Amino acid sequence: MTRVFVIVVLSLSIISCWKQDSNSPGAQTKEARYAVAVLPTPVLNTPDFNSVFGGSDKRTLKLTSKNLIEEVEFIALPHTVFVIEERIRKGSREILRVTTKDYPYHAAGGYYIDSRFVEKRFEKPQERRRKLPDKDTIIKKLIAADGAIYVWGGNYSKGIPEMLEFYKPSGTLPNDALKMWTLKGVDCSGLLYEATGGYTPRNTDSLFSFGISVDVKGLSPDEIAKKLKPLDIIVYKRHVLIVLNSREVIESAISRGVHVKNLLSAVRAVSEIMQPANDYKGDGKGDKFVVRRWYPE
User: Fold this and answer.
1) Alpha helices for 148-203 (secondary structure H)
2) Is the pTM of this model over 0.85?
3) In this structure, are residues 234 and 271 in contact, taking their beta carbons and an 8 Å threshold?
4) Cα 167 from Cα 222, distance rounded (Å)
5) What pairing do the DSSP bridges indicate for beta strands 185-186 and 149-150?
């Protein structure tokens, strides 16, 4: 009987201590430090997703004069790992300010995701596996995107149907608006990013130094075209063209979306307004274009 009494007293004492500790000023609830994308996840440069997808009337997209949603930075592919820097409540929703190795670019205002696209983790997950597909697979994926619309920050041409659930528009949207709402399109570097399964850099600026330089300085458009190989990239200020074969290149342009064009004609057009160079750095870089060979021989 005495042993039972002692055990009860000790148990009550432990519970009492735990309650006092949990209510003390220094006690905090442990929160998840990481998140992993379980869906293609839009990453924005603003925490106010509602103002971008819906606005005050819940059916208006926030578009620029060029029909772009410039708040979208990129679409994180499934298994992308985020570090949670801050949690922001937006009504019943939780927006996370995050960083990720998949998008290592600085932004003064930070990057944000909707927590409904991810799964939170307490322990650091393994980073998303980056495996380069074979050349034929990449080219097939590039061609499969032909006809997709241009979406600023887009790199998932199938679109994200969950956007219609998480940010439900009021009423029925026209087809073009529906594509934009679900981010069903790609930008120029996003076209390559999608085709390589997220292996290549996401921003055009990083493509200027990706792979090795093809010596094109001082060459004519015809000479340059003869040197190009499949998957070589022609990079200039804020744009990239991707070589498909000895006759064609593919690009995603604001005015036309994803389309295939003649290689020689494309090189001639670029050469009319810019000079071929082997290095984009230095003076007058805005007037240069470079060719990079990044796919392993």
Assistant:
1) 162-166, 175-181, 188-195
2) yes
3) no
4) 50
5) parallel
